[in-house]
Design goal:
Elements (H helix, E strand, L loop, with lengths): L2 E2 L10 E3 L4 E2 L4 E4 L1 E3 L2 E3 L3 E3 L4 E2 L4 E3 L3 E2 L4 E2 L9 H4 L5 E3 L4 E2 L19 H39 L4 H30 L6 E4 L3 H25 L4 H8 L3 E2 L4 E2 L10 E3 L4 E2 L4 E3 L1 E4 L2 E4 L2 E3 L4 E2 L4 E3 L2 E3 L4 E2 L4 E2 L4 E2 L4 E3 L4 E2 L1
Parallel strand pairs: 1-3, 2-7, 3-8, 4-9, 7-10, 8-11, 11-12, 15-17, 16-18, 17-22, 18-23, 19-24, 22-25, 23-26, 24-27, 25-28, 26-29
Antiparallel strand pairs: 5-6, 12-13, 14-21, 20-21, 29-30
Helix pairs in contact: 2-3, 2-4, 3-4
Length: about 350
């Protein structure tokens, strides 16, 4: 019953994950050390019910103990003995000890760690759709694109220059259909996202992940990646339910629960930053709002967690994190993980 999302840099034979642990999105898991002409590979281990948060880094050779939490955009503590301390929580770069950890205890283990057979079957069915649907649509998109071009070449007596001239319009038309499918799927399967807490073994969570997977594997590569940095990207997010002001510059596609996102006029979302509107804490999916004010700037690869607010003209620097529940006052600048005032 381990849960692994989108871990990268894995050396599979050297990674050990304990029972019921949780590896969240974009975790760098067991990356080797390369320096002074050498590459060093070592075992990387996460203990039973350990939790590694979004965009965290576990270097090769890391060993974290049972029920240890490594927060988002964080590294393990430098002292190996600290990393093995059972039921401890660490956050930041460098990691600092969190003496208190908010735990989600409103759901029983039958909906978090030990699901019934009915929930197992239900999840397998929905997950099968989540795996197959985006790739099927992607293949259909490319097949339709190629079929039309072949038809032009064989039956319309169209020369290569004319095909080149028509191709952008063909691509835009088919991409618009693909994006319309993602919009329809979101509104039909989820409707409007609202602040909510749901246990991992709940069909709302799986339906949300279905929408997210289709968005990331279909809408993003076919449409949204091409619109980064243009005025058209916020238009697309508005169709999915997000609230974006005028003249927003966005060089990222890392938004998921669209309806709880609000971005003010003239704000800037720099390269690959994330407005993180949900986290899995103790196997409970918590969704809430992210509010970015007018003329704010979120730096490259920075993360803004849910229940937080950036007041007008505030700035979060590159590779920094605004923790949940925090507010950046107007006209201030912040840097680091956790963010500290500059």
């Amino acid at each position: 019953r381990a849960e692994v999302s989108t871990a990268s840099s894995i050396s599979p034979d050297l990674v050990e994950l304990g029972d019921e642990c949780f590896i969240a999105d974009a975790v760098i898991l067991g990356v080797p050390r390369i320096a002074d002409g050498e590459i060093v590979l070592d075992r990387t281990r996460a203990g039973r019910r350990a939790f590694v948060g979004n965009s965290a880094l576990l270097p090769s050779g890391t060993d974290i103990g049972d029920d240890v939490l490594i927060g988002c955009l964080s590294v393990p503590p430098a002292d190996p003995a600290d990393a093995l301390r059972v039921n401890s929580s660490w956050f930041g770069t460098p990691a600092v000890f969190l003496p208190q950890r908010q735990r989600a205890q409103q759901f029983d283990e039958g909906s978090t760690f030990r699901p019934s057979r009915r929930l197992l079957v239900q999840r397998y069915l929905i997950e099968a759709v989540r795996v197959l649907l985006p790739m099927t649509c992607f293949v259909l998109f490319n097949s339709a694109l190629m079929s039309v071009i072949v038809d032009w070449d064989e039956n319309v007596d169209m020369g290569l220059p004319e095909i080149f001239l028509r191709f952008p319009f063909l691509y835009m038309a088919l991409a618009a259909l693909a994006f319309a499918f993602v919009i329809a799927l979101k509104w039909l399967v989820i409707g409007r996202y609202r602040p909510v807490e749901k246990p991992l073994w709940n069909n709302y969570v799986w339906r949300s992940e279905l929408v997210t997977a289709t968005y990331e594997q279909l809408a993003v590569p076919l449409v949204l990646d091409h619109l980064r940095g243009t005025p058209f990207l916020p238009w697309c997010w508005r169709l999915l339910g997000a609230r974006f002001g005028r003249r927003v510059h966005a060089d990222t596609t890392d938004i998921t629960e669209f309806d709880v996102v609000s971005v003010g006029d003239d704000a800037s979302l720099d390269s690959d930053c994330g407005l993180q509107t949900h986290l899995f804490e103790d196997r409970v999916m918590k969704i809430s709002t992210v509010d970015v004010g007018a003329r704010c700037a979120v730096g490259a690869i920075a993360i803004v967690l849910y229940d937080s607010r950036m007041e007008d003209d505030s700035k979060l620097d590159d590779l920094s994190m605004l923790m949940k529940g925090e507010t950046l006052p107007a006209s201030t600048a912040w840097r680091g993980s956790p963010a500290r005032k500059i």
